[in-house]
Amino acid sequence: MASPAKYPLGDKIRQSPPVDLSIPYDPAWLKGKTILITGGASGFGAGFVRKWAANGATVVVGDINVQKGDALVRDVQKETGNSSVHFVHCDVTDWQSQVNLFKEAVRLSPHGGIDTVVANAGIAGDDPLQRPGKLDIAEPPEPNFKIIDVNLNGVLYTTHLAFFYLPRNPGSVDCNVNSDPTTNPRDRHLLLLGSIASLAPIPIQPQYGAAKHAVLGLFRSIRSSSFVQGVRVNLLCPYFIDTPIVTTGARIALAGGALGKVEDVVDAATRFTADSRILGRSLVIGPKLNVKQQENGEWTLVAKGSPEGQETAIWEAYAEDWEDSEAFCRSLVGALNTYQKARGWAGWAKDIIGALGYGLGFNRG
Q: Which UniProt keywords are present, listed alphabetically (predicted)?
């Protein structure tokens, strides 16, 4: 990873430096870990299961599709010879169903704990939000918010349970950028699945876009305080990847461009999951491109095989977050910090007295 000296605020929020993708990681670091994945029966999830089971992890797959989940687990056990791959039925929109999944994962874990939780479950589909019906109907139809329920509420349930179970992982210690992934497989890691729709609008899919924006906000909020529980949090933001979630209509709309590949998403997720030194980072995964980065940070396409360029499908989003955030936010926060410094300890003491007085019922409107 990049030198931490360039990113001093990372120390204060327990965030590691931007990921140096040229530095290799070893999937063998997964051996002995217990990993829980929601929505693991197909798409990215199935790719994660195959890769991680092949490298010796215990993988517990939670999914609402029993037929696909059972078939995947049987296939992976046969392919890898790893019998520690399990399927548990789970509806992520149901609190008790998720509780049951986590309890079962702990029971199935060889060491009685969970090292990584992957909040992977997600759906897309027809979104009625902007289609309230014909103008001649008397009553507005109730919208179907299933996409929000799965992609946001389900993720919040998973996150809440992760922060309950991960700190209780036997043999684990607080996350640390100086961790050695080669010597201790015990971990406390939450991996969130966002999307390119976390970073940009997505036409005709407002629920999906809203949910994935919310996942980004969740990530940016909890990564700055998750060190309290010793949990490291990372985020994946895939572009349109060649999986069943990309519908025929979406493929037609994207014609002429390119879809990303599942194996590149699996690669990014495996790096996060295997390397316990990575805290609070996010990676965008798209189609492989041959690119060169300019001095101003912009990427330009170059000819394939050009010595000036590099082929990559993975980029870091918010690489300098907390150092070089959006201009307005940076300016506003800078002004507020300057004001706080100018007021000094006298201002702090005045505010504390005011806060205590408010708690006692004084100065309330």
A: NADP, Oxidoreductase
pLDDT tens profile 139-195:
888 889 999 999 999 999 999 999 999 999 999 999 999 999 999 899 999 999 999
- C-alpha radius of gyration, the chain, whole number: 22
- State yes or no: is 212 an active-site residue: yes
Q: Is 33 annotated in the active site?
A: no
CA 110 to chain centre: 25
How far out from the chain centre does Cα 148 lie? 16
As a CATH number, domain 4-321 is 3.40.50.720
Q: Give the whole-angstrom CA distance, residue 345 versus residue 337.
A: 14
CB 37 within 8 A of CB 49: yes
Q: What is the pTM of this model?
A: 0.88
Judged against a pLDDT cut of 70, whether residue 205 lies above it is answered with: yes
> CA end-to-end span of the chain, whole Å?
52
What is the residue-wise DSSP string for 101-121? Answer: HHHHHHHH-TTSS-SEEEE--
Residue spans of the domains in the chain: they are 4-321, 326-365
At 229-279, the pLDDT tens digits run: 999 999 999 988 887 777 676 677 666 677 889 999 999 999 999 999 999
Q: Which of 208, 239, 261, 318 is catalytic?
A: 208
As a whole number of angstroms, the distance between CA 73 and CA 46 comes to 9
Print the SS3 string covering 192-221: EECCHHHCCCCCCCHHHHHHHHHHHHHHHH
Nearest-CA neighbor of 280 among 14, 11, 8? Answer: 14
Q: Please, are residues 66 and 74 in contact by the beta-carbon 8 Å criterion?
A: no
